[in-house]
């Protein structure tokens, strides 16, 4: 983001009474004032414009994701961010930095310090985190579940990892640890981050989501059978991906 945009949209953490979601992407938009800072009554067009402006998503991708989030979790064609925490609608267990719902109707929206530390430990201290590092974190988190995710939520998790990488990666194809810490841990737009130079479209997101899913699937089959998988599993990107970009 430009210096002028950062000046006009300063980071202000959520205060008591503000609504937040399990998604760092949307929480960062609210914490910088691109969305209402109280996280309430966010209209469809407001949501689409904010996501396009800050994250450079195509109109089609932004509109599909915004519409899906509002239809699944909204009210009167608007959205409160905390509604995105309703378990097993968009939110799912095995989040990277949020604890599981553990039988509750809604999952926690606060960042879990232990999970954040574990997540950041997968990043190379010098080079940061690659797309496949993110896939490895997903494998690690899902392996901790007593019951596996259903197919849809497993696909959503893979797509979230892909979209996170597309939004945050630098020219090296890796995400620096400092950027991961500020985005996931502090829910702010990182200091040394600029929005993607090229528009991120639905095809981009689907392609990278398929790569993550294939890596995860190959790892699971190799672990279970002792041999690497040779089949490519192509998953359709869930329209709900960005609303829980904390894969």
Lay out the secondary structure.
Blueprint: H1 3-8, H2 24-31, E1 42-43, H3 44-55, H4 59-73, E2 78-79, H5 113-121, H6 131-143, H7 151-168, H8 177-185, H9 202-225
Antiparallel strand pairs: 1-2
Helix pairs in contact: 3-4, 6-7, 6-9, 7-9
Compute the number of helices: 9
Strand content: under 5%
How many runs of DSSP E, i.e. beta strands?
2
Mean pLDDT score: 89
Molecular shape: globular
Rg measurement, Å: 17 Å
Strand order, largest beta sheet: 1-2
End-to-end distance, in Å?
Answer: 24 Å
Q: In terms of per-residue confidence, which ranges show pLDDT below 50 for 5 or more consecutive residues? A: 226-246
Can you summarize the main beta sheet? 2 strands, antiparallel
Secondary-structure element string: HHEHHEHHHHH
Overall helicity:
40-55%
Determine the structural class based on helices, strands and strand pairing.
mainly alpha
Describe the structure concisely for a colleague.
46% of the residues lie in helices and 2% in strands. The protein has 247 residues and is mainly alpha-helical. A two-stranded antiparallel ribbon has the order 1-2.
Descriptors:
247 residues, mainly alpha, two-stranded antiparallel ribbon, disordered C terminus
Textual characterization of the structure:
It is built from nine helices and two strands. By secondary structure, the chain is mostly helical. A two-stranded antiparallel ribbon has the order 1-2. The longest helix has 24 residues, at about 200-225. It is globular and about 45 Å long. The two termini are about 25 Å apart.
């Amino acid at each position: 983001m430009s210096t002028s945009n950062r000046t006009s949209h300063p980071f202000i953490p959520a205060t008591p009474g503000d609504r937040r979601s399990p998604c760092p992407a949307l929480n960062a938009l609210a914490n910088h004032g691109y969305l209402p800072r109280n996280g309430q009554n966010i209209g469809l067009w407001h949501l689409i414009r904010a996501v396009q402006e800050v994250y450079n998503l195509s109109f089609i991708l932004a509109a599909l994701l915004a519409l899906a989030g509002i239809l699944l979790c909204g009210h009167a064609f608007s959205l409160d961010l905390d509604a995105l925490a309703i378990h097993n609608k968009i939110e799912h267990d095995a989040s990277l930095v949020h604890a599981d719902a553990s039988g509750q109707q809604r999952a926690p929206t606060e960042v879990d310090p232990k999970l954040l530390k574990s997540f950041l430990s997968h990043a190379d201290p010098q080079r940061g985190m690659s797309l496949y590092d993110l896939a490895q974190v997903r494998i690690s988190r899902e392996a901790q579940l007593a019951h596996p995710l259903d197919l849809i939520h497993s696909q959503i998790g893979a797509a979230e990892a892909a979209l996170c990488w597309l939004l945050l990666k630098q020219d090296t194809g890796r995400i620096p640890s400092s950027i991961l810490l500020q985005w996931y841990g502090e829910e702010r737009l990182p200091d040394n981050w600029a929005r993607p130079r090229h528009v991120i479209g639905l095809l981009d997101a689907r392609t990278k989501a398929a790569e993550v899913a294939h890596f995860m699937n190959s790892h699971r089959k190799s672990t279970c059978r002792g041999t690497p998988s040779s089949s490519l599993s192509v998953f359709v990107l869930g329209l709900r991906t960005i609303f829980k970009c904390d894969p």
